[in-house]
Amino acid sequence: MKKINKTQVFTDNKTINLMLDEVDYKDGLKIADISCGDGAFIKEIIKRTKTNFDKIYGFDIDDKVLNKKLNANIYKTKDSLTDNKIINGKFDIIIGNPPYLGYNECHKQKFPFFKKIKSKEIRLNNIFGINFHSTPLNPKKYSPKPNLFSFFIALGLKALKDKGILALLIPKTLLNSTDLDTLRYYLAKEVSILKIITFKQEIFKEKTSSMVIVIKKEKPENNHKVLIEDCLYDQEMLLNEHENWNIFLNNNYEIIKKYRNKTKDLSEYYTHKTTQEFLFDKGMVFGKNIIIPQGSQGLKVFEKKYRIIWRYMNYDGFYFEQSNEVIGSNYCIISSDNYDELLYLFHVLNSSLTNKIIDVLFKIEGEKDILLGIKAIKKHIRVPLLLNDKQTIIKMIKNNEKKEEIDKLISNILL
To answer: pTM score, two decimals?
Structure first.
């Protein structure tokens, strides 16, 4: 296994054959790898083929890794995402390991598809029929930045015949990335997800966490079930929980359900009535000029007397401080002049139970770091439901009771 460039990571034969077994590949089916790289998938497909080599297709943008000697239809393409041979292919099976690359980096490398996004010839609200911008009930006020691999899922579905099968090896970030809620929504609503296979160990030396998703291009039937690890879930549950599918791993769904039943969301801190008292924002981008993040509240967040801060990347807990010092963009901030209320919120956020919930929802096995943004906190982290419980916690804080005792009380209340 060798890394060629920032997008290409090649796949071992054991994983390839597992995926071919999952799609039930048989000689005579029209099959394609739409990012074939060194042809690893194509080689294994050929081993299973006796006569119908003309129904095997491979596409890639890099002719250095295209193996011309393979007995199959191998094509160099300027950009798989804009290639009509793929888009109109009507394949029985799409299989492969699509490239993983951040949205901004794709723009930097000036991929043709991303040039069209920049010029608005292609819009995020219609990528091969999928709205990557917003879900119907949650219109985003900012421009999301989906990873490149997610567009290959959309392309693969577009290129399939009706009832065709898609099997892709992709990062586990599909399960919980905030900017991929739209893709999870579409998959759960419009196609039949057959299986999600997660890998406990790292498949790649680059330490990319991986999973295989197997999808049938047809509307899910009532009570259609999805196999995730060793459990079956109604696909309707995946639709209802499209904001985060991590909860279906490691039998965590019951924990999250219990947590929700005894708590309420953080909306009391950011609704219209309290929006001036509690400010949620990111730090500044420092360079030649200070850049205020898109959709932010500007410098107002730094004018409040007290704040809770945490790292977006390399999250290692929440910190409470009295400061109006401007900090960098890797930090997220909740600020307020209301000392008691903010300190109460800090204790809830920094409790062992909240950190357990954060692990359940945002920790990806095989990934070193947790990415924890403001949107994730607002959507998924909760506070005690009952006012009496809140008042009890605040009283303990004011009485300077031991942190361990406060933490124990919060855990008992929340779960």
So the answer is: 0.88
Architecture of domain 263-414: Alpha-Beta Complex (3.90)
Q: What type of residue sits at position 182?
A: T
CB atoms under 10 Å from CB of 303, counted, come to 12
* pLDDT over 80 (residue 180): yes
What are the tokens at 15? 């994983």
Tokens, residue 8: 């290409």
| Domain spanning 13-251: CATH superfamily | Vaccinia Virus protein VP39 (3.40.50.150)
Residue from 244, 241, 245, 255 nearest 356 by CA: 255
Calculate the alpha carbon distances from 280 to 79, 100, 274, 302 in Å: 39, 30, 11, 10
Domain ranges, ordered by start, for the chain: 13-251, 263-414
Residue 77 — very low, low, confident or very high, per pLDDT cuts 50/70/90? confident
In whole angstroms, what is the distance from residue 197 CA to residue 202 CA?
A: 13
Per-residue exposure over 237-251, b if at least 16 CB sit within 10 Å of its own CB, e if not: bbbebbbbbbbbbee
